[in-house]
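In this supplementary section we document a worked example of the pipeline. Step one takes a protein sequence of length 346 as its only input; no multiple sequence alignment statistics are reported here. Step two produces a three-dimensional model, which step three serialises into structure tokens for compact storage. The input and output of this example are shown verbatim.
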Amino acid sequence: MRAARLHAYDEPLRLEDVPEPRVTEPFDVIVRIGGAGLCRTDLHFIEGMWAEQAGVQLDLPFILGHENAGWVEEVGAGVEHVQPGDAVICHVQMTCGVCPACRRGDDMHCAQGVFPGIAAPGGFAELLKTNARTLVPLPDGVEPADVAAHADAGLTAIHAVKKAAATLTAGQRCVLIGIGGLGHIGLQCMKAMSPATVIAVDTRPETLELAAEWGADHTVLADGGQAEAVQELTDGHGAEAVIDFVGEFGTIEYGKQLVRRHGTYYVVGYGDEIRIPAIQVIFNEISFVGNLVGTYLDLVELIELHTQGKVTLRTQTYSLEAINDAIADLDAGRIQGRAILVPEGS
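The serialised model returned by step three reads:
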């Protein structure tokens, strides 16, 4: 099969022929990729950030790609809920199902979890090997390429939004920083799940125009005066919740100024550091909450919202052969929404 592989950090991926994955265990599933989303995490892997800062070394050459959807190609003997030809989206974590985290439905903290595209070959290829527990069947009429980004971008967004929405009431405010690949999904999820007033912050005027179309109550251009603008919109108190979908390029530095007393800052994007005197955290009683993708049931809920038309994806499609063009466009900020790689013939 054809696959795009990383051979060395900070180098372009190479498209080449590699052996097809095989079913070897009863609950293995081979998925023919219909769409694979490109994520900033993929860029961080290519740049070597994960190797340098998290100690995660890929077994190079390696197939990246953790936002995957397609059609079931082959199943192991124990798989009963899907069959060849079924359209599916893949949860990002292959889980064991029996550890305490799995029993709680906390998929991302499975004791034996394996993350395709990071710890196993991913979806920048024609075929992906996963297990039956990852698969969410897609409703009739929903095409894999149209929802592939929900496997991580959408899943991460809804997971963070559900945490915030559970605490927000009418009249309270939520600031969303970055209305890009994750943020445009998070905005729609927040409007579907909470009565809170939503303030969208982004560096691009054209993105803020889209944010208004997606339901943002206020939009703020991040041009240096965004902290003052948000304070004015919140009567000088700040917002009860801030969800930072960027986590780099200075967003944390100004974003932490936007949280009101007893508020919560949800960290989704990453790249920068959180620096704040402990006394400020204590005196203002603010919380910083991390967000690691989401659960299988979060993904099921998100696909339902998509099917109902309450959450839509803005995507830009590339052939697998054009993967390095897609990477360059993402790195340069030329993509609005999410880049989706589609193998030839899918």
